[in-house]
Structure formats: C-alpha cells, structure tokens
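Possible regression after last week's pipeline update?

I re-ran a chain I had predicted before the update to compare outputs. Posting the input and the new output here so someone can diff against the archived version. Not blocking, just want to make sure nothing changed silently.
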Amino acid sequence: MSYEENARIISDDIFDLVNSCFDEEKSSRNNEGRVNFFDTYKDYFVLTDDGSYSINSKEINHKVETLHTSTGAISESFEKFIKPMKFNYNKDLAILDICAGLGYNSSAAIADFMKNSSKSSLTIDMVEISHATLACGLLVPSPINEHDITKKAIEDELIAQDYATLNMEKTEIPENITINVYIEDARQTVQKLKDNTYDAIFLDPFSQNMAPELFSLEFFKEFKRIIKDDGIVATYTSSAPIRAAFIEAGFYIGQGPIFGRKQGGTLASPNPLMLDTSLPKNDEIRIALSDVGIPFRDPGLNNMSEYILEKRTEERHIARHNTKISSAVKTPIFLACEMDDEKLKRRVERNLAKMNIPSTTSKEAFYIVECEKNYSKKQDSENNSRNRILDMEKRLKKVKSGNYG
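New output (post-update):
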C-alpha cells in the first residue's frame, strides 16, 4: 500500500463513490452527478449538532469514527482553531492549514478575517493528501457562507489536477484573500515553504496512531522554521508525545480550548507570551518524567506510519527505567504525594526505585518536582509549562546518576 493510500482517512465506500462521481463528470461533462451527490448519498454524511456535516472515517482498529466532533463540525473549527489565535487584523496574515479535509478550518479563518479586517490581506495554504477528501468539501452543504469561498479554491485546484472538470462554484474569492491548495504529503509541502511565514498553523490530522508522521519531532522542527516569532500552532490533541515533540522542537506550549472532548487541545508558539494557559500539572509531570513523553520521530520526513510507531515503542522500552520513569499506573504523578492505596503504592515505588528514587515522599521525589510548587495556571515568560518540564527532566537525570543536591 502506498503512503497516500495509507494516509487517506475517509471511508472506502464514500471514497469510491466520490471518485466515481468525478470520473463520470470528466467523461460526460455533465454536472448532474455532482449536483445530486449529497441528496443521493446523504446517509454517508453525518449531521453534527450545529447543523454542519461530517463524514465517516475508514475502519481503524475495528472502529469507524467521524472526522469531526458530534458537538459541531464547523463550531469545532471556530472554537479550537480560531478563538485561541491573537491575530493582528491590521497586518497581512498567513495561515497554514494542514489536513484541510472539507475546508472547515480555512473557512472559519476566512469568516473571522472578513469580520475583523478591512485593509489587510489573508493568505491560506491548504494541505490535504486526498483528492477525494477535498472533493467531499465540494459536495457537502456549506455550513457558513465563507465555505463557498473555500470551495471555489478547492474546485480550481481539482480542475488544475484533472480530477474535476466543470466550473460549478460561482462564488468569487475576494481580491484580498489568496488560497493555495496543495494536494500532497504535508511533509513534502512544509520543506518547500519559506522561513518565518505563518501567523498560524492549523494541525488537524485524524489521529496520532494513524498519522504519527504529522506529529513528529522533525515535522515540528519545520514548523519552528516557517512560523513567525509570534505565531501559534493549534491542534486538537492533548497527547503527551505530541506536546513533548513541540518542546524538543523549541516551542513553548499551552492548553488549548476544550470542545467536544474532556481535555483541551494544545497550543504552541516560539513566544511564551502568546500562550495564556498552562498544561495541567500532572500532564507536565508525565511529559517530563515518563516514557509516555517520548515523541514520534521521522528522520528524513519520509517514513511510513507503522515504522514510526514501531520505533517509538522500541525507544520507550529502552528509556523505561533508564532515562525515564515507567508510565505504568501513571507512576510519576505520585511523586511528592502520600499514598493510601498500599497495593498501588508498592507498584509505584517499585518503578521509582529503578530510577534511584526510594519512595514517593523521599527527598529525591521532592527534588524532582520542586518547580511544580510554583505552578500557575496563568503562564508568563518564566513560569510556564515548557520551563517546568525541562527543569524536571534535568532533575530526574541528576537523580538517576546520583549527582544532585
């Protein structure tokens, strides 16, 4: 299976139907297939709570999920990718939308820009590996008027690549908005982009287990190169390896909005002052001290997902009890804590002993997490999640080597 086939996430049924629709359009030059597609195959689309539509993923680990939260597909775009931004609408803006999918995140950005800006310009670079997924963006009803602008850009590129044939989208793209659509592996796209370009990067792959290559340390190093000093990366995930990769790539990190999930997503920026909210304290501790905080790695930005996942599993195994505390039973979060559950305490302290930490209340335990005494939900340039995580990493290393005090 090719990387493109592996990376495509929409269900096989809708994938085949969409391709057939556009193949028929090309051969007949008839617009009926596209015009009638949604009504004919409406059952393949999923209505979310805010009235916008999503589509189902292909089967992954015997499960089928929608591409967006059931709480609201277009609402998710505004809540997770637009509201956290601190755009200066008096200046020209540039946004990179990775895994653009149906185009909702870009459409939300256009809506916010048109509402707040009168003189500046907006450039959006949309990246999506699947022609059929982008084509689904043409076939769903537009949840907001600005989605029609995005549709026009998608259609233009699909025609340019000989996937679509007919110009059916009549909405004009405003003169102060430029939308570039890249239908390719995002890892190859980012390497072609200029330094210090983007005010925001929207990172919206389906999942880390399906596309770890789009959450890798090497990918984020490219982000660090192409983002502006005051830019913000937004992603929906709260996963420890992703947050760890951002830190290793040189970013500050913070908690993103909570919408449709129990936990908030992740925001990252080269500038700590662009991020308001710290990660939860236990998240910081696990990222800093546990093998769960080992990032995904993709040397060369060209490896398959399975290889990246396997290599991380191997690295976690090597690090466990050597450079990192075991993630079993969330061991690190009990440092500097009294424990009443004796059975759990024995398991935790067996794991700690392998890192030269005698107990959860030993001087070594208190030393490692000392910086968390100053934990504040509100971040600043000094007291923030990145600095605390790096401090705990250094202290664990000293304790393991017996060289601290």
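Follow-up from reviewer: compared with the archived run. Residues 17 and 68 are 20 Å apart (CA to CA). Marking as no regression found.
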